[in-house]
Amino acid sequence: xxxxxxxxxxxxxxxxxxNVEVLDAEGxxxxxxxxxxxxxxxxxxxxxxxxxxxxxxFQDAARAH
Length: 65
Ligand code: FES
Description:
Helix content is 0%, strand content 22%. By secondary structure, the protein is an all-beta fold. It has a three-stranded antiparallel β-sheet, with no helix packed on it.
């Protein structure tokens, strides 16, 4: 199994687990825990992290083939 996993949550964020760093465009590191959620709906007020805003209208349930 990979050291880091990114799970697409149905109608929600990317759930990231493992030892990973999230950097901004200038290379500065965001503070994260071992598991955190990245916004994929585009509506979070706290990007790049999910703040629950997806619950209003975001729908996607992608599946790997
Ligand atoms: S996925 Fe949760 S706010 Fe965007």
